[in-house]
Amino acid sequence: MPPIVLLTDFGEAGPYVGAMKGVILGIHPKATLVDLSHEIPPQDVRAAAFVLDAAHAWFPPRSLFVCVVDPGVGTARRIVYVEAGGRRFLAPDNGLLTLVLRERRAVRARAVTNRRLFLPEVSSTFHGRDVFAPVAARLARGLPPASLGPPARLLTTFGFPEPERDGSRIRAKVVWVDSFGNVVLNLRDEPVCEIRARRSRIRRLVSTYGELLEGEAGILRGSSGWLEIAVRNGSAASRFGLAAGDEIDARLAPAAPRKKGGRR
């Protein structure tokens, strides 16, 4: 049975995650529930988009991701159900699915408007419990998506920051800081040889964290394919004073000279 995967900014201390799970299990006692993360920074839709993109492809096909990072809860913003890349997503239509939708051609989407699927009383401040949870439980039990509401077109997306290149220099942004303090940048395939973070220069290129000396900073490609700044047994974010949204400058390695062909 494909799992229901929860992604929220609720934190672990309060009753909110537990309340959602209680509603789901009350409707679908055999549901398999997985916590992707509940530590998204409050209302940070871009961070949620990054975390979802980094993890969703590793789940079984037909997994249902219930994503509740919803600054517009209670307003006229839509809730949408989306099928993309063999997975299913239930989310506010606020850009949270931007990276999931990028480069996906086969996408099916519906607006969630059928109030009969919600709890009898819907709080204007807790749609995670009263709307997302009961709808997710019913979908996991086999509810046809057509029962949710009409097809949804023109899904909301935001412009994911792209690096700006100027010759051998490139300006990038921090898109995520993980719990270890590793600083994830919006750089994937660029041949970076140096990063300038605040007033520091980082030139050590490694393949693993273990290649760095104790307390040494370096650049490596993380498990999600993005370049990271890391400090061995320390926090790169704290060392260099970096947070999501900050800009850094990087230098690209010179291209290898092309070999001239000769005649025999």
Low-confidence stretches: none
Structural class given helices, strands, pairing?
alpha+beta
User: Taking all residues together, what is the mean pLDDT?
Assistant: 92
Range of strand content: 25-35%
**Major beta sheet, specifics?**
8 strands, antiparallel
The string of secondary-structure elements, in order, is EHEHEEEHEHEEEEEEEHE
The Rg value, from CA coordinates, equals: 22 Å
SSE diagram, text form:
Blueprint: E1 4-8, H1 16-27, E2 33-37, H2 45-55, E3 64-68, E4 79-84, E5 87-92, H3 98-101, E6 107-111, H4 127-140, E7 164-166, E8 169-177, E9 183-185, E10 192-197, E11 200-202, E12 217-221, E13 227-231, H5 236-240, E14 247-252
Helix pairs in contact: 1-4
Describe this structure in words.
With 264 residues, this protein is of the alpha+beta class. The protein has two domains: 4-147, Rossmann fold; 164-252, Beta Barrel (Elongation Factor Tu (Ef-tu), domain 3). It is built from five helices and 14 strands. Helix 1 packs parallel to helix 4 (127-140).
Explain briefly what this protein structure is.
This protein is 17% helix and 27% strand. The chain is α+β, with helices and mostly antiparallel strands. The longest helix is centred in the middle third of the chain and has 14 residues, at 127-140.
